[in-house]
Design goal:
- By secondary structure, this protein is an alpha/beta fold.
- Helix content is 37%, strand content 20%.
- Strands 2-1-3-4-5 form a 5-stranded parallel beta sheet, sandwiched between helices.
- The relative contact order is 0.10.
- The protein binds calcium ion.
- Calcium ion (CA) binds next to loops.
Length: 240
């Protein structure tokens, strides 16, 4: 899950970024409205946390631009303006939730999780074959065995499970699990997939993680693994 934090106040942006990273999310920070619009244009976010008082424009303008697109991410407004008028205006303009600064991080996290759950039926329990991921409690069980994963391993597995049966490119995996600094380091995905396989696949007869040649990786229960279905999520690739 990847979240964009639009916040010009460095202290709050750092605080939010660190907290959300600890909770297992990939975070980008946009310090003004123009970069926020650019970021949401370039990257497919799962959620945007939006400050209203930005140095270059009103946050509501940013909201307008995000909402102007076909399927924008949910937006949580986080602003010092606590007046009822702003709250109503934000929600009228298509924000999904509104919180006033100062805020308690636990409450923010609860609302973030609620927004991310929306539109994803029964998302807390993901299953492929005998592998079950409880994304709320961050537990992984294969058969009867509980498996311990590092946070990034968990992030990759959760992303793959949410897209089971779809081949995912290394770039897509990097974009959903790492922060922007990792752009281009797609080889790291191979390393993490190796770790994941050693924990969830190697000692089991039925392999769940499949390498999709020329694309990347896919998770699927073995009886359905072949032939590979080409879902529209695969980015178009030039024939070579
Ligand atoms: Ca501000």
């Amino acid at each position: 899950m990847r979240i964009l934090v639009v916040e010009d106040e460095r202290r709050i942006a750092d605080f939010l970024g660190r907290g959300l990273q600890c909770a297992g999310y990939a975070i980008d920070v946009a310090p003004d409205g123009a970069s926020a619009i650019q970021f949401t244009h370039d990257t497919d976010y799962d959620l945007v946390i939006l400050d209203l008082m930005l140095p270059d424009m009103d946050g509501l303008k940013v909201l307008e631009r995000i909402r102007g697109r076909q399927s924008g991410p949910p937006v949580l407004i986080l602003s010092a303006r606590g007046q009822l008028d702003d709250r109503v205006k934000g929600l009228e303009n298509g924000a999904d939730d509104y919180m006033t600064k100062p805020f308690a991080f636990v409450e923010l996290l609860a609302r973030v999780r609620a927004l991310l759950r929306r539109g994803q039926p029964a998302p807390e329990r993901l299953q492929v074959g005998d592998l079950v991921v409880d994304s709320l409690r961050r537990k992984v069980i294969r058969g009867t065995e509980t498996i311990d994963l590092a946070p990034k391993e968990f992030g990759i597995l959760e992303y793959m499970m949410r897209n089971k049966g779809r081949p995912l490119s290394r770039t897509m995996i990097v974009e959903h699990v790492w922060d922007m600094d990792y752009d281009g380091l797609t080889n790291i995905v191979d390393v993490y997939i190796r770790h994941l396989r050693s924990k969830i696949d190697d000692k089991y007869t039925d392999k769940l993680i499949h390498t999709v040649r020329g694309i990347g990786y896919m998770i699927e229960a073995p009886e359905k693994a072949a032939p590979v279905r080409l879902d529209p999520i695969i980015p178009m690739q030039a024939a070579s």
